[in-house]
Structure formats: structure tokens, C-alpha cells
Amino acid sequence: MKISLDLVEMTEIPADSAIYVSGSDIKRILYGIDIGVAELQYAKENNYDAVVAHHPVGLVNHYKVFWQHLKQLKSKNIPGEEARAVIEEKLIGFKFGAHARNYDSIPAFARLIKMPFLNIHCPSDELGRQIITQAIEELCKKASYPTLDDVIIHLESSIPEFSKAQTRIEIAKGSSSDQLGNWIFSHGAFTNGGFTIANLYYKYGLDTVIYIHITPADLFQILSIQKGQLLITGHLVSDSIGINPLLNELENRGIEITVLGGLLR
Ligand SMILES: [Fe+2]
Ligand SMILES: [Fe+2]
Prior knowledge:
Helix content: 40-55%
Oligomer: single chain
Number of strands: 9
Bound molecules: fe (ii) ion
């Protein structure tokens, strides 16, 4: 956990990440984007020292990381008041969604079999946000008016994980010859901002919002308004881009890692 926080200069464990069962002297790790009881049992039987998930598995307050959208919205000159109102509305849905889920099923199993277990979400997503944002900034320095297609070609050729994914970077709204214009890669804030956050970016002059995934309902709402373009980079691949630097760092320290659960290494 500490190594992942250090990679993005975070000093506290964010609300969507946690150590469920602590452990020490970790030499072999099973690492996945999603971890369930089967993976925990497999790790126990095969002498792993710890299991790490990307997505939170047992937290009711994980959605508070959605407040990270505020910083990103403000960085594009969106008024704080308006941004806060949109975020607060989204939080109501996340809160009662979390209430409905069984938050202790998987951690309880890890405790029962005494398997060290943690999940690291926001620190890895923040790193992924930085990596993909920097790649697009690089393109914008080289080409004065890049198109959506230029962005896709540049990301796919400069970040190796994209060639390992079954998904492609998709233009969910717009056409390949449209200019990228004023843009944001909105990621690392628990989950995507759906229609309401994208709409706020469009309202304040952004041409292109880039998410890693979106629900069909939010997408149809975005498609129903006149303005704005939307790129979708792909869920597992974009999560993997933020996780792999941590895996490299762990391997440099002599830790053996087995990946599964959708992680593209
Ligand atoms: Fe993620
Ligand atoms: Fe994810």
C-alpha cells in the first residue's frame, strides 16, 4: 500500500482502498483487477503471501473518492459551486448503492482463511490518469490541431498495454476527423462522472471528454445533447496502465507476482 501511495505522492490511504487482512514478509503476490473468494482460496492453497485487488471489495465509503472530480473540474475553470452541486447529487446514488451491497462477504472470507488481502484503487488510477494525460499532452505539443483519430493512434502506439486489450479506444461521440480541441482525461476519481460531469465540461467550453468507461444510460444522454465529443479508452486496459508501474516496482524489489482477474500485464 505504501509503495503505491509513494508513486503518486499520496500520504493517506484513500477511502476506496484498504488493507482487509494485514500481513508481513510478502514475497509472492496474486494481483487482479477483481478478486473474489475463489482467487483468495487459490492463493491460500498455492502459498501466496498476499492477494491484491484493484477494485474495492469491502468498503461502504469508497465513493467519497468521487470528490476528486472537484479538483479536475476546477482545473478546467468550472465554478466550484456548480461542480460541488453536481458531485453531491451523484454521491446520493453511490451512497445508497453501497448500502445495498454486501460489503463484508469477500473480506470475511479472507479473514477466515487468514489470507493477507488489500485493494489499491485511487493511487493506481491517479497514476494511470497522469500517464495517459501526459501522452495526450505530448501529442498536442507535436501536432497543433490533433484529431480524435490522432489521439487514438498516438495512445495506441505509445502505451504498450493498448495492444494487449480486446477493446479498442472508441469514439463514443464525434467523428475521427473532429479536432480534439479543449480536452480532459477524467479518471482517478472513484468512477467516471457519467452524463452530468461530462455535460458540465461541455457547458464550460471543453470539446472532448475522455473516460475509461461509461454506462449505456449515461452515453445515450450525452448523445442526446448537441455539444461535446466523447472518447472511451477501455476499462481493463486503462486500469492496467495505472497498475503496471506498481508491479514493476514490486518486481524490482524481488517480489514475485502472478496477475489475473483482467489485469493486462
Ligand atoms: Fe481503476
Ligand atoms: Fe476499474
